[in-house]
Amino acid sequence: MEGNMSHAGMVPVFADASEIEPGRYQAIMKLSMAGDWRVIVHVTWSGSHKEDDEFEIKGVEPQIPAG
User: Fold this and answer.
1) Which of 19, 53, 54, 58 is the 20 to 30 A CA-CA neighbour of 67?
2) Predicted structure pTM score
3) Is 40 within 8 Å of 52 (Cβ atoms)?
């Protein structure tokens, strides 16, 4: 997975997904700052067929440290 801020100039963040049960995957992506993000899921199926899907996450808020 690849996360990009909705505006130019920011470094993308990446995360790998793991299969948690047959056909179901999970990933944890640490978004580096508040704002709107676009996430691209890069999938390689057996036989090397590749496919991408994209979705938006709007209004990510900064993480407040515990304590």
Assistant:
1) 58
2) 0.77
3) yes
